[in-house]
Specification:
Shape: globular
Strand order of the largest sheet: 1-2-3-4-5
Number of helices: 3
Largest sheet: 5 strands, mixed
Structural class: alpha+beta
Strand content: 15-25%
Distance between the termini: 66 Å
Length: about 110
């Protein structure tokens, strides 16, 4: 009996970082929706920081805040060429309203 040795798909040694596939169209669509409600005051993708309208933020429930934070993290990751994370800050006071990274959404204090 002969045993054929070879490389199984997905078992090769990778050289360098793996490029993450992003659905740019979906990110843009979701960003348009978030912009439509007036949530975003300004975005600094390279700094992974978004200034948020505090009145709109206060009117949203926890699940929407988590969703919006995940979209904003994807946007910052895409635009900066880095990993997906973001800090959401009150546009009036600079207070941390929330953070989203690989661990998920964390409300501000």
């Amino acid at each position: 009996m002969w045993l054929a040795l070879g490389v199984l798909p997905g078992c090769t040694e990778q050289q360098g970082p793996v490029a993450e596939t992003r659905d740019i169209g979906m990110i843009e669509k979701n960003m348009a929706m978030i912009n439509g409600i007036g949530l975003i005051h300004s975005i600094k993708p390279v700094l992974h920081e978004v200034q948020i309208n505090p009145v709109v933020w206060a009117s949203e429930d926890y699940e929407y805040k988590k969703y919006a934070a995940s979209i904003l993290a994807q946007f910052c990751g895409w635009k900066s060429g880095e990993s997906d994370w973001v800090e959401l800050r009150d546009a009036m006071t600079g207070k941390l309203l929330g953070r989203y990274d690989a661990a998920g959404y964390e409300p501000g204090s």
